[in-house]
Design a protein that fits this description.
Helix content is 78%, strand content 0%. The protein has nine helices and no strands. The chain is mainly alpha-helical.
Length: 219
């Protein structure tokens, strides 16, 4: 008896499927085709993205090699191309590297390049702040205290990703301009920050010793 009920149940399901197919068969076929097409398109997009990233990686390595070999013009051309048309992280890396290489021959131009990165809303806040730090580093030997403060003092607050780099820059400019009390304050903040890198804390401690020794000698 149970076999009979099972056969009847299977027959009813078969009839329901047949009616469903008669009513919606074409729609089901279309949906399947669209799903396969979407999957195929996604796979192609991922393949193309991986291929582009691989090509950018090769170009970036070539640019690095050219830079190390002293072929600045060729390296700059590749970095500039990647910075304009590169994909993802390589575009960002190339932009920072191009600005850094430019500093060797055109410091004001490099500062402008880093300032442009600092104002790029497409970058994360951490990277924009890094660009601010890099621009300020190029001006640490010439900027006034007020100009340096405009650039990085806002990054020196507790919890900032680049706070100790900002403090170090502020301290160096303070010491260079004879603002010893201010210099001591900035370097002391680095020394007491347990999250500061050991090398940075050592530099700050050394600078504190110099601060205690008096103003920087005039050349």
């Amino acid at each position: 008896m149970s076999d009979l009920f099972r056969e009847i149940d299977e027959e009813l399901r078969r009839e329901k499927l047949e009616r469903l197919w008669q009513r919606h068969g074409t729609l089901l076929v279309v949906l399947v085709v669209l799903a396969l097409a979407a999957f195929g398109g996604w796979r192609y997009y991922m393949w193309q993205k991986a291929s582009s990233a691989e090509a950018d990686g090769v170009s970036f390595e070539q640019a690095i090699s050219l830079s190390k070999a002293g072929k600045a013009k060729e390296a700059d051309a590749l970095f500039s191309k990647l910075a304009t048309s590169g994909h993802g992280g390589y575009r960002i890396l190339a932009s920072f590297r191009a600005a850094a290489d430019l500093a060797q021959t055109d410091k004001p131009g490099a500062v402008k390049a880093f300032d442009a990165l600092a104002g790029d809303s497409g970058l994360s806040q951490v990277l924009r702040e890094l660009a601010q730090i890099r621009a300020a580093t190029l001006e640490v030997d010439s900027a006034s205290y007020q100009d340096m403060a405009k650039r990085v003092e806002g990054l020196a607050s507790a919890g900032g990703a680049w706070r100790n780099s900002a403090r170090e820059l502020m301290g160096l400019v303070s010491y260079r301009t004879g603002e010893l009390e201010s210099a001591g304050k900035w370097f002391d903040q680095i020394v007491v920050d347990r999250e500061a890198p050991p090398s940075q804390r050592q530099r700050a401690q050394l600078m504190l010793e110099l601060v205690r020794g008096g103003p920087v000698p005039k050349s």
